Amino acid sequence: MTNLDLKRTLKDLYAPSAKDVHVVDVPPMNYLMIDGEGNPNNAPLYQQAVEALYGLAYAIRAVSKADGNVFTVMPLEGLWTLQGIPDEFVLTDADKDQFVWTLMILQPDRITADIVAQAREKSRKKIAPALLEALRFETYHEGESVQVMHIGPYSTEGPTVARLHQHIAENGWTLSGIHHEIYLSDPRKADPEKLKTVIRQPFSRV
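RE: above sequence
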């Protein structure tokens, strides 16, 4: 069986330059998603949501594999909003407590609602009912965005985010949509200085 790796087929979206900001047009794609609030560093719900999301993602992969379609589970992604974002993008712990986030994992086009339902049934003994109920399968259309690769700790993302916002402003565009991050590295294993994170910001041409 041929293994589908969307990081390779969607290289323009998942392997941007770390030097230059690029414009991408992100098409409608299907994700597993779960919502939450609070500081990802200390909110218990955040880690529980990550574990539930991956649990269902791997169950979907197992159902798909049994049908002869194998794929690599994609990395964790996050949509982040925050009340009162500081102009300098320097967030305090108090600011982080105000985070509202949606965690998600991209699914191949061949994954259907029926496959997700089968995987959900197989996961009922492994994922807490409340979390399993909170997980959803949904299409997300991001559209035109600017993005760049951030290399280093999450705590140093501020200047990288500022570069994206500056690029949008310099072209006469406006921010739209939600701040988006794609976590290509496993923070449990990687050197913090070598963490790779895609930072993406949708925009509108005005």
